[in-house]
Design goal:
The structure holds two protein chains of two kinds. By secondary structure, chain A is α+β, with helices and mostly antiparallel strands. Chain A has a six-stranded antiparallel sheet, covered by helices on one side. Chain A contains three helices and six strands; from the N terminus they run E-H-H-E-E-E-E-E-H. Chain B has a single domain, classed as Orthogonal Bundle (Arc Repressor Mutant, subunit A). Chain B is 48% helix and 8% strand. Chain B contains seven helices and three strands. Chain B has a three-stranded antiparallel sheet. Classes of the chains: A alpha+beta, B mainly alpha.
C-alpha cells in the first residue's frame, strides 16, 4: 500500500499513469519541446523561463496569467530523462510526480510519461474542501467503487 | 443559453484555445444559495472558465457537469445519496412545484447521475454514484489530460518543422 510516489516499477498501479508516444523528431528536438520556454508554449503552457534542474517552474495560462501547473524540476538529464514535482490548482496543494523518458526509436523518439503519486479518487480533489456532509457521502461511495 | 454550452473540465488547462465561454449559466435562478454553494460554485465556475469548445471534448461527461452546476440539483443529489426518493418526496423538501422538481430530475437523469426506477405507480429516484466517479476521479482526469497534451506535443513537433523559431527571434513577452 505504501508505495513510494516515484516508484519506477513497470506495473500500472492504482495511482500511476504511464503513456508512451512515438514522435517523429530526434531526442534533441523533443527535449527542447519539454524544456524550452518557447516550445512548451506551443503545446502546453508558457513557463516563466526554460526548465532547469533544481529550479521551480510555473506554467501559466496564456489567457489570464493564472497559474496552471507548477512544481520543481527535480532532475534533468538532457535528452534522456526529466523528473518534476507537479501539481495543478484543483489538486489543492497535493504534489505529484511527473517523469519523462526519451528513447531513440526508428525515425524518431519514444517518449514515455509517468505520472505517479496521484491522490486516490476524490482525495485532494479541489471540490473536497467545499463539500458538506452530503458530498462526503458521495466520496465514500466513490471510494467503494474503486 | 447555458444548456447549449459545450463544457469539458478535462480540457480546462487548454484555455489558450478558448474563444468563447458562451453564456455559462451558473445556478443564478436560485436566491437561496448558501455560502457553501457559493464556494462550490466558485470552484466549479473556475473550472468552467478553463473550458474549451471543440475538438478534444470528451462530451460524454458534459451532461453530468451541466447537471452538477446547479445548486438545487446538488441538493437533490445529496438527498438521494441518503435514500432513494419519489418525486413527491423530493418536492416536499423544496419550495417549488413538482413540475420544477421533475425538470431537475430529468437533468440529473440526463447526466446519468440518478437512476429512475418504476415501483408500482411511482417512480423512485436514486443516486448513481458510479456516474460521479469519472467526475471526481483524478486518475481518469489526468489520463485524459495527458492524452490531450501528448497529442498537442505530437502535432507541435510535426508542424513545428516548417515554422521553426530560433530563440533569438523571441520578442518581448506577448502574454
Amino acid at each position: 500500500m505504501n508505495k513510494p510516489l516515484n516508484s519506477k516499477d513497470l506495473t500500472m498501479t492504482d495511482t500511476t499513469i504511464r503513456k508512451t508516444v512515438y514522435l517523429g523528431a530526434d531526442k534533441a528536438r523533443v527535449w527542447e519541446f519539454l524544456t524550452k520556454k518557447e516550445h512548451l508554449n506551443i503545446w502546453f503552457h508558457p513557463p516563466e523561463k526554460d526548465l532547469v534542474e533544481g529550479e521551480e517552474y510555473l506554467l501559466s495560462s496564456q489567457k489570464d496569467g493564472d497559474r496552471m501547473c507548477w512544481g520543481k524540476v527535480l532532475e534533468a538529464r538532457p535528452l534522456e530523462y526529466m523528473k518534476w514535482d507537479f501539481t495543478v490548482g484543483p489538486l489543492n496543494g497535493a504534489m505529484t510526480c511527473v517523469e519523462w523518458e526519451l528513447e531513440e526509436a526508428p525515425g524518431g523518439t519514444r517518449l514515455t510519461l509517468t505520472h505517479s503519486g496521484l491522490p486516490e479518487s476524490g482525495e485532494g480533489y479541489g471540490l473536497v474542501m467545499a463539500l458538506d456532509k452530503g458530498w462526503h457521502g458521495f466520496l465514500l461511495n466513490l471510494h467503494g467503487l474503486g | 443559453m447555458g444548456e447549449t454550452v459545450n463544457v469539458c473540465v478535462h480540457c480546462w488547462l487548454d484555455i489558450a484555445q478558448v474563444t468563447t465561454l458562451g453564456g455559462w449559466e451558473f445556478g443564478g435562478n436560485k436566491s437561496k444559495r448558501n455560502s457553501l454553494d457559493m464556494i462550490l460554485n466558485g470552484i466549479i465556475n473556475k473550472w468552467y472558465q478553463k473550458v474549451s469548445y471543440g475538438e478534444h471534448m470528451p462530451d460524454h461527461l458534459q451532461p453530468a457537469f451541466r447537471a452538477l452546476a446547479d445548486p438545487t440539483r446538488r441538493d437533490i443529489l445529496r438527498m438521494l445519496g441518503d435514500k432513494p426518493m419519489t418525486i413527491a418526496e423530493v418536492s416536499d423538501q423544496f419550495d417549488m412545484t413538482r413540475a420544477a422538481v421533475k425538470k431537475h430530475l430529468v437533468m440529473l437523469s440526463d447526466g446519468g447521475l440518478i437512476e429512475v426506477e418504476a415501483r408500482g405507480r411511482e417512480r423512485v429516484n436514486s443516486l448513481n454514484a458510479a456516474a460521479l466517479k469519472p467526475v471526481m476521479d483524478w486518475l481518469g482526469w489526468f489520463d485524459r489530460f495527458w492524452d490531450v497534451r501528448l497529442d498537442a506535443l505530437k502535432t507541435a513537433l510535426e508542424e513545428g518543422n516548417d515554422n521553426e523559431q530560433t530563440p533569438e527571434q523571441q520578442g518581448p513577452d506577448n502574454d
